[in-house]
Design brief:
alpha+beta, TATA-Binding Protein, 2 domains, four-stranded antiparallel beta sheet, 4 helices, rod-shaped
Length: about 150
């Protein structure tokens, strides 16, 4: 075997190997870059997570507004609150609801402007399948009432 021929074969094989490694690195780099820049969309099929909070917020809003208007809705207000409102009406002129959020499971936080005063309420809900809208307003607590008085 001739050394010059061996060296030529060796260099030719090295050149092929370098081309294969280079092409492999380019493909790997392009794949990695496209994977990093790819937008990912996830579909969540557990609708209960997304539907519970808006339902609770709507029941809070409807229940509160029906109580302060003097005509409580029995479908969204519990019997205990209905009895209390019949004995001692709770009327309030609501100018604007500034914020209504479901703070935790079965509870809402309501901030509103009424009679030119800023007021906040924590509303607790009772959730049961026998209720027409699953939730009923169970308790209303005015927050920071002592600071305003």
């Amino acid at each position: 075997m001739n050394f010059d021929k061996f060296q030529a074969d060796f260099l030719r094989e090295n050149r092929k190997l370098k081309i294969i490694v280079g092409v492999g690195l380019i493909i790997f780099s392009l794949g990695t870059i496209s994977n990093l820049l790819e937008r990912k969309y996830y579909l969540y099929k557990g609708a209960a997570l997304f539907e519970e909070r808006p339902l609770a917020e709507e029941v809070c809003r409807q229940g509160f507004l029906s109580i302060v208007s003097g005509n409580p809705n029995p479908f969204v207000v519990s019997k205990g609150i209905l009895d209390l409102v019949k004995k001692d009406p709770f009327t309030l002129t609501v100018n604007k609801i500034l914020k209504l959020s479901s703070s935790e499971l079965g509870s809402c936080h309501l901030v509103l402007k009424a009679d030119e005063k800023l007021m906040a309420f924590k509303i607790k809900l009772h959730g049961h399948a026998s209720n027409p809208f699953f939730y009923k307003l169970l308790e209303m607590e005015e927050l920071a009432a002592k600071e305003n008085e």
